[in-house]
Each structure stands twice: as C-alpha cells, then as structure tokens.
Amino acid sequence: MTVAKARIGVAKAAFFPSLTLTGMGGFESATLGDLFNWSCRTFLLGSFAGTALNLPIFDGGRRKGDLANARAVYEEDVANYREQVLTAFREVEDNLSDLRILEDRTATQDDAVKVSVQLEGAQAVSTVNLIRVLGGG
Length: 137
What we know:
By secondary structure, the protein is α+β, with helices and mostly antiparallel strands.
C-alpha cells in the first residue's frame, strides 16, 4: 500500500518542472606521464553549465492519466487490504461462534450422561426392591 501511495507522489511530481545537473569528469595533462595524477583531474560540465530544465507543458494528458492510474492502483490496494481484514474478522468470529456452540453441546451431552447414570442407578434400586418384595433374598 505504501508503494502505491508513493506512486501517487511520483505522478504528482511529474506536473512540476525538473532541473537536473550533469557533468563529465576525466583527466587532462600536458604530458603523458602526468596524465593519471590526482592533480590532473578535471571536471567538464555539459552545455549550459551542466544543467537541463524540463518543463511539463503539453503531453496529451499523459501526466493526468498517470496520476489517475496511480490513485486507482492505491484505491485497489486499500480495497484489497480492507477485504483481507474483513475476511480475517469473519473467520475469527465464525470460529469463536463454533467454539461457543460446541461448548454448549458438550455441556448438554455431559448432562445427558449424568442423567443416564442416575437412571441406571434408579433402575438397579427398583430391581432390588422388586426382588425383595417378591420374597427374594
């Protein structure tokens, strides 16, 4: 996203004049033996003292198109990021909901198991009482 935002800045900067400085360097000496000595180093500036001025006057809407494209790419990146965040939140909420549902089901099953054990105990007590009432030992 920051790269796309930087592209917008670059596209905006294209609307302003730009000034570049250029130069060439080399060595200059009267004798071949002194040619590569540090004291013989010279710097030659290009035409107009090594400067070049670029003025954005007419480009058929290219800069406006580049700026609109950079903004569109940025908006697309923001939308994709938001979609990813919303998807992550949805997945977290779904899993939290599943955990709550499964916890409730587990508690219900635990209660059913406890009741089942109690019913088996009551059935055993009733069986013993029946045998005793019928004269069993």
